[in-house]
Amino acid sequence: MRRLTAVLMATLFAAGAGCTAAGSRAAAPTGPRHETGPAQPTGTPSDRSCPPTKSGTGRGSVAVDYVDFIQVDGRTYIANLSRQAGSVSRADLGRTVLVSRCAFSRLNDRTGQAPAETRDGDTGFLLPGTPVQKIRGWSVSCRLAAAHDGRLNVYLAYRDGDDVARPRPCALRRPGATS
Fold first, then answer.
1. pLDDT value at position 134?
2. Do the bridges between strand 122-123 and strand 102-103 make them parallel or antiparallel, or are there none, so unpaired?
3. How does the average pLDDT of the chain come out, rounded?
């Protein structure tokens, strides 16, 4: 779990005493434009939907620059890190796999702290209540999709335990595709 959190945090800055993270804003990585998706929920993180934050000693705060991730069934899925992800349309979407619980970037902005652990439904940027959906023709354990900032993003499953973020092989090759 600690290694997973390290992959999710692109950059971590410890601010000095008296500083806050209120002025910092994490930005999603840029990637290829996707077809416009459904409207976004407008929820905000709450103590009930987000995990506890790390309790620090002292008065400092932490600003985290998250990647666009989702955690589902203990597996991390990341958008916009691989050009091989491609795009999807609404017609490509299947059933809802889960609904997002907590946007870590918003939680960090609000509290100046990083969550202690990542749980299923936690995300880097998806607002609480955002549906995360299966992509037709792909295994749920390999690829998912969700609407973010007015477009549909493809989220690739990533290997656990690697020091460098790498998609799982099944996330890169459509089932039944030949080389």
1. 98
2. parallel
3. 75
